[in-house]
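Quick review question:
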């Protein structure tokens, strides 16, 4: 095949032709950036040399059309930068993109010396504002960059109005680049406080470290379950088995309060399709399973787990609310932690929950950690303009005065060119 011109997308990759789905993306009325994805794209590192000072080169691509083609590069970065964090793996992020990304969401890839060195998924907010792509199913957001200085050459590559802020949402500082060197160009705020469990000495020392009240409560629960006829545990770890198990999981959620609220995993909604797809992918690599507890032959609770070599993530739990007096979800959690902390290899168990909303998880935890929202501005002046406008809006709301329409909008007014210079 004769290579075609990259057109809007300067080549960045080892020289190879990648056939990607056809997509045409417009950044909106009046935008100067419109991408025509009706061509085969040639990735050629010879066209992506950094400048004399080693400035990285960026390419922005429609995420839905290109993420699957470039998943191997994404996973290589995750392995290098974050030890293969399960939430950052293409097995998780790929289904997120497939089921929830819009046509304007972008995959941003950075190369240096012909090698892919960084990746981001960004969503446009309008007026030069961008935000990390993060559907509700993602408790933390990947930033696959070795450092944030690489952003200096990204601003001008983002389409539409001149970019002046990228809002990184739900960032785990333990598994993210260091934002401190950005100084006044970064603004941090609290998102959540998560917890986890790590005990290299095993489950015995871990459980002995829980409160006497908690241990007594579980002794009572186990005794009650024994009187009810006991329970059985099942682990489903093949792609076909986890697919069926996720459907049963959805049945539990749909029958409870989440079903009434319209937020349950279900076979006929995007969330249900996402979890089935995602769990199948993890199971296919031996890194995902659905665990169930049955009481008197009836499914009582279900837990979705995914893992890497050093980390297990407790993704999601559902239980039969009619059996809530037996606490089947907590019994299942106890048994799973017993397995996780006993059988090698020793992994950190991340709950990625918000203890501000669910403080009972503190009783289980051996550590806690902050999850942050971090706004990165193109310049300190842009930060001052934005935070000043935010403070004004808060004062107007607090005083009961009229809030200007621009301040009410989700897309805040962009700073002047002087502020972003």
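Suggested answer, residue by residue:
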């Amino acid at each position: 095949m004769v290579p075609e011109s990259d057109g809007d997308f300067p080549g960045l990759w080892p020289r190879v032709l990648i056939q990607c789905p056809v997509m045409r993306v417009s950044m909106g009325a009046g935008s100067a950036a419109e991408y025509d994805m009706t061509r085969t794209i040639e990735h050629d590192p010879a066209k992506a040399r950094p400048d004399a000072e080693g400035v990285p080169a960026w390419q922005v691509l429609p995420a839905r059309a290109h993420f699957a083609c470039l998943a191997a590069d994404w996973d290589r970065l995750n392995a290098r930068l974050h030890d293969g964090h399960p939430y950052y793996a293409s097995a998780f992020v790929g289904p997120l993109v497939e089921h929830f990304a819009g046509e304007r969401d972008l995959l941003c890839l950075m190369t240096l010396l012909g090698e892919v060195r960084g990746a981001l998924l960004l969503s446009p907010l309008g007026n030069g504002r961008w935000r990390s792509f993060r559907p509700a199913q993602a408790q933390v957001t990947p930033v696959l960059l070795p450092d944030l200085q690489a952003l200096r050459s990204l601003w001008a590559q983002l389409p539409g109005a001149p970019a002046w802020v990228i809002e990184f949402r739900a960032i785990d500082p333990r598994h993210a680049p260091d934002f401190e060197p950005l100084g006044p160009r970064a603004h941090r705020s609290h998102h959540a406080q998560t917890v986890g469990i790590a005990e290299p000495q095993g489950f015995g020392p871990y459980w002995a470290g829980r409160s006497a009240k908690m241990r007594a409560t579980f002794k009572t629960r186990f005794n009650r379950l024994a009187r009810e006829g006991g329970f059985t545990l099942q682990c489903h770890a093949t792609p076909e088995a986890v697919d069926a198990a996720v459907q049963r999981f959805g049945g539990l959620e749909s029958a409870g309060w989440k079903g009434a609220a319209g937020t349950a995993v279900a076979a006929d909604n995007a969330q249900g399709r996402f979890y089935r797809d995602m769990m199948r992918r993890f199971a296919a690599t031996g890194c995902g399973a659905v665990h169930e507890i049955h009481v008197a032959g009836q499914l009582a609770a279900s837990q979705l787990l995914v893992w890497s070599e050093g980390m297990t993530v407790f993704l999601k739990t559902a239980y039969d609310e009619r059996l809530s007096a037996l606490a089947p979800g907590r019994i299942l959690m106890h048994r799973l932690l017993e397995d996780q902390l006993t059988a090698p290899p020793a992994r950190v168990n991340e709950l990625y929950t918000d203890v501000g909303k669910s403080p009972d998880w503190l009783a289980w935890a051996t550590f806690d950690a902050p999850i942050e929202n971090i706004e990165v501005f193109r310049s300190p002046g842009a930060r001052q303009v934005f935070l000043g406008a935010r403070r004004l809006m808060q004062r107007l709301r607090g005083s009961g005065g009229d809030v200007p329409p621009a301040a009410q909008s989700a897309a805040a007014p962009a700073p002047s060119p002087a502020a972003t210079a």
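Why it works: Residues 1-52, 403-413, 416-421 have pLDDT under 50 and may be disordered. The radius of gyration is 24 Å.
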